[in-house]
Specification:
The complex is a heterodimer of chains A (about 375) and B (about 90). A 4-stranded antiparallel beta sheet of chain A has the order 3-2-1-27, with no helix packed on it. Chain A has a 4-stranded antiparallel beta sheet with strand order 4-5-6-7, with no helix packed on it. A 4-stranded antiparallel beta sheet of chain A has the order 8-9-10-11. The radius of gyration of chain A is 19 Å and the shape is globular. Chain A has a domain of about 150 residues: 7 Propeller (Methylamine Dehydrogenase, Chain H). In chain A, about 5% of the residues lie in helices and about 35% in strands. Chain A is mainly beta. Chain B has about 90 residues and is α+β, with helices and mostly antiparallel strands. In chain B, about 20% of the residues lie in helices and about 25% in strands. Chain B contains 2 helices and 5 strands; from the N terminus they run ββααβββ. The chains are: A mainly beta (about 375), B alpha+beta (about 90).
């Protein structure tokens, strides 16, 4: 788990009933993302900063026992004398590269930018192709590339497991984008996805994706939770379908995370939060619940057994809900109140497995 | 010119726990370049990629708060690199 005050690891036995907490790592650091390398499970990358110190990336090659700092963390080039250049405020999202490219990592930052490392995260290069594309978007429609309260976040960097050159990424705000040449050129892909906060409700770009995932069972099936609903996209199509319309009206389809089943393309979970009025972003009515669809979003089932039945005002951030690959799949969510909740039965029942942690910013699952 | 440098607790993971070190330089920019050679990674945590001192770090040269890396360091000056109260 990456928290506002450091990183922690929860380790389970084979039954996933007993959990042991390890940490904190880098106590006091704002840990934005802690990711295990699926190509080398002893390698971890951690994006962190503190209230005083600038953003950096730490790497461990012994499963978190020791850490080394990146020699060249994500940073913009120095601007020419007399002009104002951007500054990386935080590295928000870390994504391991394609399985055929050991050592390659991608990073999304605040403010918007894409970085790539080819040496396991030791040094990072700004991806100028994306920067040029972004500058063009801003020039054409400056109001459509914006900021969230957490800044202008580049996130959900998704690598097609069939093609190392095929990636997607998302901008909060700005929308969802695709490259087929490893990031040299990009195109928006937001048809059907709404931006209720702009004068043009269905712009070419400008939407606010909160979290986008590829189905591990079918990388052409993409699920998106955004500021204005839950969506599904089936490639090679390019039009998003708002599957969140099928959630109960008194719950709505606003939230931050979305999770795809490890083996079934039609199964996904969301954690709806109140998007009415002043956007409280807490469980609707104080009744936390996950909603699961087993048919690609056509219908949804409320899953709340084990959660508080009342006065449970959970907020779960966009990177703080994940699935494992066990059978049945396990689900894990971390709240801003520092609680980790887990399900061993694909969401049917839930139990709190950790508490009293700092605000949880991100959760990832590593299995061995 | 050898300059005594005092570091607040935030940076001591870079100096093997030492709060007082020495580095060479006649300006803050030169001093920080040498600090980074001696303690790799330290500079970027306190000075951003546009060569600005990060907003919640304070640098004092000879007892005076400075925000410009071009600031000169006079013989006998001590440099303090401190976390500001504004950073939490």
């Amino acid at each position: 788990m990456a928290t506002i005050k450091g990183a922690f690891v929860l380790q389970a036995d084979a039954s996933r009933r007993t959990w042991k907490l390890d940490g904190p790592h880098f106590l006091g650091s704002e840990a934005n993302h802690l990711v295990r390398d699926p190509r080398d499970p002893r390698t971890l990358l951690l994006a962190a900063r503190t209230g005083h110190l600038g953003p950096t990336v730490f790497r461990s090659h012994d499963a978190g026992r020791t850490w080394q700092e990146a020699a060249r963390p994500p940073a913009f080039p120095k601007a020419p004398e007399g002009s104002v250049g951007p500054v990386v405020q935080r590295t928000f999202f870390l994504a391991p590269g394609h399985a055929s490219q050991p050592g390659v990592w991608w990073a999304g930052t605040v403010p918007h930018a894409l970085f790539r490392s080819e040496d396991g995260g030791a040094s990072w290069e700004l991806q100028e192709g994306f920067s040029r594309f972004l500058a063009g978007l801003k020039e054409r429609k400056p109001d459509n590339i914006g900021e969230t309260p957490g800044g202008a976040i580049t996130h959900s960097i998704l690598v097609d497991p069939r093609d190392a050159n095929h990636l997607y990424l998302s901008l909060s705000s700005g929308g969802f984008f695709e490259t087929t040449d490893a990031g040299r050129s990009w195109r928006p892909m937001n048809d059907g996805s709404s931006a209720d906060f702009l004068p043009d409700k269905f712009p070419e770009y400008g939407q606010d994706p909160h979290c986008v995932v590829l189905s591990p069972a079918n990388p052409d099936r993409i699920y998106q939770q955004n500021h204005c609903g839950v969506y599904r996209l089936d490639r090679p199509g390019t039009r998003w379908e708002r599957i969140g319309r099928n959630l109960p009206a008194d719950v709505g389809d606003i939230g931050f995370p979305v999770v795809a089943h490890p083996r079934k393309q039609d199964v996904l979970w969301v954690f709806p939060m109140d998007g009415t009025d002043v956007w409280p972003r807490t469980s609707p009515g104080g009744r936390p619940a996950v909603f699961c669809s087993r048919n690609g979003g056509a219908t949804w089932t409320r899953q709340a057994r084990g959660f508080p039945e009342s006065n449970g005002w959970f907020t779960v951030f966009r990177q703080a809900m994940k699935a494992d690959t066990q059978d049945p799949a396990g689900l894990y969510l971390g709240t801003t109140a520092g609680e980790i909740w887990a399900s061993r039965d694909e969401g049917s029942s839930w139990a709190q497995i950790a508490g009293h942690l700092p605000r949880i910013l991100a959760v990832e699952v590593g299995e061995s | 010119m050898r300059v005594p440098v005092h570091l607040s607790s935030h940076l001591r993971s870079y100096t093997r726990g030492k709060s007082d070190v020495e580095a060479e330089g006649s300006t803050l920019a030169e001093l920080m370049a040498d600090m980074d050679r001696r303690f790799p990674g330290l500079r970027f945590r306190v000075i951003d990629e546009q060569d600005h001192i990060r907003p919640h770090m304070n640098f004092f040269v000879g007892g005076a708060l400075v925000r410009d890396l071009a600031s000169p360091i006079a013989p006998g000056n001590e440099v303090l690199i401190m976390g500001a109260l504004s950073g939490g």
